Amino acid sequence: MPANFPEIWLDRVITNLDESDQAPWLDGVAELDADVSLVGENTATESNIIHIAATDFDVDVLINNTTYPIPVQQYTDGSLQFTLDKYQTKVVTVSDDQIMGASYDKIDTVTKSSVRAILAEKYGKAIHSIAPQSHTTKTPVIFATGINGTDAPLMDGTRPRLTYDDLVRLKAACKSGKFPLKDRRLVLTEDHWNDLLLDRKNFGDKLVNYSEGQPAPKIAGFYLYTYENMPYFTSAGVKKAYGSVPGGTDRPGSIVFGLTGIAKKTGNTKQYFAEAKNNPSTQTNDLSYRHYFLATPFRAEKIGAII
Predict the structure, then answer these.
(1) End-to-end alpha carbon distance in the chain
(2) Contact 218, 240 (CB under 8 A)
(3) Domain 1-27+85-307, what fold?
């Protein structure tokens, strides 16, 4: 085995994490320009933390002012701190026999499962973090009704189907919540995506032709995406904890957000490797990875859901 084989593996994992197919609803979300602070390195509490400047400051505008001197408005700002989520793979063992004379193809074969697992978890956690906790004016959580015009409600068993009328209701909720009109993204559950596919009158072939590499369709002011690992909500519209087992009345929700209200940051990727020569009884190379990533709203506002 080449002396630099472990280092080559780490380089390939970092490359795959950066270049593998991204969750398209995160494309265009700016990577935060902030240094990552590594806290508690090589301890059980190791974490990646970032600090960013933030302000809610809005300048008051005077119209047809006739009073002087003009009133003074004090500028205020602050900072936000985020701790990146930590993703760790279980230890993968590869026998010395398997990696003798290894090539890049072999490296990809061995590391690909680790990459897939990390990507699935980090994007699932990302959309869960973006989803609102419960209904407020700034974080609307509404329910699909199945109502389209004057027709009887459309149902999929006991579940009301998502309709165009529901999208218009969501649009109105976003207006009340002061979502930016530009770049509103709606990530649909698979069921909701299928509901819209059935509505050929309003959607025609706009969704059928949507595929990776093509622009997302824009309907009712939303850029539409779909994702399979969506967060669950209770029947009262409260978000379930990430990774919790959904109950019988819990349902996945489609998530809406404004592009400029979401932050993402990729932190460190670390490799843990023990060579076979140090494992005489098993003669296996033990390998695992740790990766830090975060996608989150800046604040609990301009995010919503429809269940």
Answers:
(1) 53
(2) no
(3) phage-related protein like fold (3.90.1690)
